[in-house]
């Protein structure tokens, strides 16, 4: 008789299912790290761990300083220990803890993600790109969407980072009330929404440059693929903090621009990207094209509607 195959996925431990005295050997996200002093004057380590099912505290009363040097808050960590009780609550009594590396350090297991199917959204994005017929803009989109690394980053990126969760807040809560699409895949979802509205707007206003507006809608937030890093939390990268997603997006466009894209068309596209948060956010620049104005309004519409649906708005639902 053939032996049963081993499925490692079934063996993954989750915080919500841990029971008293259970041995723990798993990867979690570290969202808090504190060195504390006991009543007898010896140091110990208190850590908050998180996964998609919730949060749990872990403590190390031995070798606290040695263990503390093996990871930082915000890392994905490999934890070994046993489930015990501390003040009538479950906790993990740590034996070892260290930064997780390689395939086991997969942030998608620990971060909020889009509810919509990303493969379906990518199909919509490809369809929208095929609606552009201007040779230069069409080739630009083909180069951007043909970049495998960039394509993967588009699927991963949010539009804004979620707020860090507190120890008492259940997993799945805590997205930023001031942001929108604040989860993995949020950029792809938002881009498809804005580009779809751009395409639908053009038959109503036939003087709009359809190819320019749809192209601008597809590329307007590409810089967000470089704006974030992913670990226990979604945080801004160094280049995201120093340059911002608009400048990063302009660099991506310039790096993929084909020879067939005429300078005046590239400048018109860049103008739309620079103004997509409005004139005030673009150092007082004025809208020089109806396409730039349309993109700004459509971008704002999707962001605000999404924000109202997720977090409510003044007077919304009251």
Give a structural overview.
The chain contains nine helices and seven strands; from the N terminus they run βββαββαααααββααα. The protein has helices at 64-68, 118-130, 135-145, 148-156, 186-201, 210-219, 238-256, 263-274, 290-311; strands at residues 23-37, 43-51, 54-60, 76-86, 89-99, 228-230, 234-236. The strands form two sheets. Strands 1-2-3-5-4 form a five-stranded mixed barrel. It has a two-stranded antiparallel ribbon with strand order 6-7. The chain is elongated and about 75 Å long.
Give a concise summary:
The protein is of the alpha+beta class. It has nine helices and seven strands; from the N terminus they run βββαββαααααββααα.
N-to-C SSE string, H for helix and E for strand: EEEHEEHHHHHEEHHH
Number of strands: 7
Helix content: 25-40%
Tally of individual helices: 9
Rounded mean pLDDT is 87
What is Rg?
24 Å
């Amino acid at each position: 008789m053939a032996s049963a195959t081993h499925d490692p996925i079934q063996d993954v431990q989750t915080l919500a299912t841990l029971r008293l005295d259970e041995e723990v050997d798993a990867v979690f996200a570290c969202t808090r790290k504190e060195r504390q002093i006991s009543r007898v004057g010896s140091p110990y380590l208190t850590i908050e761990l998180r996964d998609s099912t919730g949060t749990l505290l872990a403590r190390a009363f031995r070798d606290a300083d040695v263990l503390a040097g093996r990871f930082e808050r915000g890392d994905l960590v490999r934890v070994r220990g046993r489930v015990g009780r501390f003040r009538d609550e479950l906790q993990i009594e740590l034996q070892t803890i260290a930064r997780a590396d390689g395939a086991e350090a997969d942030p998608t297991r620990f971060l909020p993600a889009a509810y919509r199917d990303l493969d379906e959204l990518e199909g919509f994005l490809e369809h929208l790109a095929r609606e552009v017929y201007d040779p230069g803009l069409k080739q630009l989109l083909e180069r951007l969407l043909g970049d495998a690394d960039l394509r993967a980053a588009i699927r991963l990126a949010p539009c804004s980072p979620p707020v860090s969760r507190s120890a008492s807040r259940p997993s799945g809560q805590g997205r930023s009330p001031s942001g929108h699409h604040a989860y993995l895949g949020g950029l792809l979802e938002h881009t498809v929404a804005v580009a779809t509205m751009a395409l639908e707007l053009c038959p109503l206003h036939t003087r709009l440059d359809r190819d320019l507006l749809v192209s601008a809608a597809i590329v307007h937030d590409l810089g967000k693929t470089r704006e974030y890093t992913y670990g226990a939390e979604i945080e801004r990268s160094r280049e995201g903090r120093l340059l911002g997603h608009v400048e990063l997006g302009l660099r991506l466009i310039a790096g993929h621009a084909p020879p067939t894209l005429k300078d005046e068309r590239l400048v018109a596209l860049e103008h739309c990207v620079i103004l997509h948060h409005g004139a005030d956010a673009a150092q007082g620049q004025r809208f020089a094209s109806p396409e730039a104005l349309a993109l700004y309004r459509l971008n704002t519409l999707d962001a605000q509607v999404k924000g109202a649906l997720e977090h409510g708005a003044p007077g919304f639902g009251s």
